[in-house]
Amino acid sequence: MRSLLLIFAVASVGLTSCRKDYVCECVKTSPNGTSSETNNTGKMKLDEARAKCNDGDKSETVLGQTYTTDCSLK
């Protein structure tokens, strides 16, 4: 019973600090159409990867034309 409890405790700690590679997909929309691009975030925690990916979100208007970039983890 003690060994089972020890295994569970070690597994719980290992899963909570998990760092892995995530893929960020950015969809760019312009008057000419849409395109997408994927980037690897590198090894990091999920909340760190989500923040890094969301940093790519933007929207701008140039000469009356709107260009947007929407990024999310996949």
Helix content: 25-40%
Number of helices: 2
Largest sheet, spatial ordering of strands: 2-1-4-3
Count of beta strands:
4
Structural domains: how many = 1
The protein's oligomeric status is single chain
Tell me the overall shape.
Answer: elongated
Distance between the termini: 39 Å
Which descriptors would you attach to this protein?
74 residues; alpha+beta; four-stranded antiparallel sheet; 50% strand
Can you offer a commentary on this structure?
By secondary structure, the protein is of the alpha+beta class. It has one domain. Helices cover 32% and strands 50% of the residues. A four-stranded antiparallel β-sheet has the order 2-1-4-3. The radius of gyration is 19 Å and the shape is elongated. The mean pLDDT is 86.
Summarize, please.
This protein is an alpha+beta fold. It has 2 helices and 4 strands, in the order H-E-E-H-E-E. Helix content is 32%, strand content 50%.
Layout of SSEs?
Blueprint: H1 2-16, E1 20-30, E2 33-44, H2 46-54, E3 58-62, E4 65-73
Antiparallel strand pairs: 1-2, 1-4, 3-4
